[in-house]
Amino acid sequence: MSIDHPPRALRDFQPKHFQWVLEEGRVGIITLNRPEKKNPLTFDSYAELRDLFRELVYATDVRVVIVTGAGGNFCSGGDVHEIIGPLIGMSMPGLLAFTRMTGDLVKAMRHCPQPIVAAVDGICAGAGAMVALASDFRLGTPDARTAFLFTRVGLAGCDMGACTLLPRMIGQGRAAELLFTGRTMSAEEGAAWGFFNRLVPADALQGEARALARSLAEGPGFAHGMTKKLLHQEWAMDLDTAIEAEAQAQAICMQTQDFRRAYEAFSQKRRPEFKGD
To answer: Is residue 213 part of a domain?
Structure first.
């Protein structure tokens, strides 16, 4: 049997349009790094981010991913001159290829098995807000300002899965308000509404994100991937189907070496050392 896409290590991955660092403890850090423009995305960075998250499905050396931005901002969305300008002159096939590509980034984030932690400071707008929304955890600072700006440029609020993901996180009414008006959600609103898991001081943001990521990376990696998969899949299930899916998932996890390691550690009154297998 041939394997078309064998497992691979991503330690030496070298993107051209953002920074990628793999730290000790198998924590991969993506830094959007155009601080002079508040870290907007381009055609190329969208595609490269999508490709990285697709590769993470096969990664052998990454347990958790952090997404953050340089220079006190997370991401200002799509670059006005490098994306919006060119879109004006595109035909329908080109436009649809672009909108499908941006959606593919969110799908790749939701389908990669590693938990994703978004560390959000300053501006988090448009596509940047969607990258944060597609993450599994969001840590924010009091200065975080989140806006789904699509209507501000004459587009619908239903972009990159916003009309599915946002109501499930903060409620239908609140999501409708943000998606119709494009107004900014304050950090305090984001925390109260459940968008942010918690707020931390700006000078502690990166440390808190790394601490959360390391604690996740020390956990049972295979089981974390299963948890993420079921959180995603159960949106479309009734309760009976969901309970059966969870029974099957848990039975699979009971066959892992991590499950055995946890039992042995408990019996020996020590902390288990999970290896993700």
So the answer is: yes
